[in-house]
Amino acid sequence: MTALQKYLESIRGKRIAVIGAGVSNTPLIALLRKAGLPVTVHDKKDAAALGDRYTELAALGVSFVLGDDYLDILSEDIVFRTPGLHPLHPALAEVRARGGIVTSEMELFFAVCPCPILGVTGSDGKTTTTTLVYEFLKRAGHTCHLGGNIGKPLLPEVESMQPDDLAVVELSSFQLMGMQFSPAVAAITNLTPNHLDYHKDFDEYVQAKTAIYAHQKPGGRLVINLDDPVTQTLTLNPDSEIWGCSKTQVPENGVYLQDGIIYIVQGGVSRPLMHADHIRIPGEHNVSNVMMAAAIVQGYCADEDIVHVAQTFGGVEHRIEFVRELDGVRYYNDSIASSPTRTIAGLRSFPQKIILIAGGYDKHIPYDVLGEPICTHVSKLILTGATAPKIRACVEQADCAEKPEMQDAADLAEAVQLAHAAAQPGDVVMMSPASASFDCFKNFMERGDRFKQLVHAL
To answer: Apex CA 6: angle with CA 179 and CA 208, to 5°?
Structure first.
């Protein structure tokens, strides 16, 4: 009997609630119903808003509590929360107080996964780093499973996984908060203010991220960015084997950059891996991503596997993604940039000043760090969305001799038209919002797809 089968048997006779009928929880609901377990779905949306998903779940025989009062009565024995619901929400606190169990799809996956898990989190670069890890491992001949916050739940694949497979998982702060499991290899790319509309403060956000290594057992590896000021201050798990990544120092174990060459060092003994200029995806931040991924896969991949992928990997969609060249103007989609630090990294990827489209949903994070980089790297700034005034203000207040021309747009469609009208042959236009997408779009992918449609329609 597999670990998943044992778990399902152990909860037989319990009443189960699943909060949220979204992408990550729908396979979970199907799995629980297939096992013959009673499931009630609690969701803020009504049946009409859920649409086909409601029909699909109803056909499985689930019960529903829908609408604004969906959390008023959580009487079930086991509650699987959606990542978007804060684990300290009063409704969940009441469940715990009466002896109920609050868990998540991701926590169950960690509990029953039969193979080693390699997990990546951080504020910036985690999707590219996670994808690179997956590509390195595939190149080395491993059977790999990629998922988590990167878009695909892995729980449905558990029954087909073998002990010598590898699971590569991207983890958000939403998924990590309250987690009681850690991956065999954990990595934190960096930590900057983010999701402060969800977390009560930056300290809570950082604490959520540390769950990725807090429960590691002896033999577990933690890869951290030694150049990031916040990760330098973390209290680490004494059971974790620490590997560092740095562009400024040589760690005892890890990956570092020196004179343009990336080195791997183990026990103080270094060996060259590759020249940083040979990495195909542009930008200094992607050098860091390759270094982090290389540290994560040590013991699983040969150096030549890492080098081959680094030289040929073209990047992940919506991350400084080349869209098209029109009349000598190149257009790039950087919709993933939902925070200032991501946009700054994107701006630094080009040797010239660019035309930047920015702005979106307000996550209540500071924007002051964005002023100087925009002045340095942007010739024209086109602003849209709720954060437009904040971004404009940070540029206006920046201590810079030369500032870009700034223009407001009613929406993304107008922003693309304004950028097109301003661009001259040789220019670069990039949408890198420095903001979340929820003011106008379901997620950054939908925003990026819309940008690409608009650009191709020019």
So the answer is: 5
Q: What is the DSSP string of 269-303?
A: EEEEEEEGGG-SS-SHHHHHHHHHHHHHTBTTB-H
232-254, pLDDT tens digit by residue?
889 899 999 999 999 999 999 99
- Helices assigned H by DSSP within 86-182: 90-97, 105-112, 126-139, 173-176
Could you tell me which of 205, 202, 166 has the C-alpha nearest to residue 300?
166
Residues of the chain with pLDDT under 50: none
- b/e map 420-455, b = 16+ CB within 10 Å: bebbeeebbbbbbbbbbbbbebebbeebbbbbbebb
Crossing angle, helix 105-112 and helix 3-10, to 10 degrees? Answer: 130
pLDDT at 30: 94
Longest Cα–Cα distance in the chain: 70
DSSP secondary structure of 155-186:
GGGGGG--TT-EEEEE--HHHHTT-----SEE
Structural domains of the chain sorted by starting position, each given as residue range(s) with its CATH number in brackets = 15-104 (3.40.50.720), 113-312 (3.40.1190.10), 321-456 (3.90.190.20)
Please state, in angstroms and rounded to a whole number, the distance separating the CA atoms of residues 145 and 18: 24
Calculate ∠ Cα 212-217-218, nearest 5°.
Answer: 130
Contacts for 138 with CB less than 8 Å, ≥ 6 apart:
144
394 contacts 370 by C-beta, under 8 angstroms: yes
In sequence order, the β-bridge partners of residue 265 are: 254, 270
pLDDT in tens, 140-198: 999 999 999 886 889 989 999 999 999 999 998 889 988 999 999 999 999 987 666 66
Question: Given this model, what pLDDT does residue 245 score?
Answer: 97
Chain centroid, CA 239 distance in Å: 26
Residue 166 · residue 142 · CB < 8 Å: yes
Q: Which of 345, 364, 341, 282 is nearest to 315 (CA)?
A: 282
Q: What pLDDT is attached to residue 202?
A: 86
pLDDT for the residue numbered 194: 66
Sign of CA dihedral 117, 123, 127, 128: negative
Q: What per-residue confidence (pLDDT) applies to 196?
A: 65
Q: Which of 348, 406, 405 is nearest to 376 (CA)?
A: 348
Paired tokens of 44: 């803020």
- By the 10 Å C-beta count (0-12 exposed, 13-18 middle, 19+ buried), 241 is classed as middle
d(CA 415, CA 408): 8
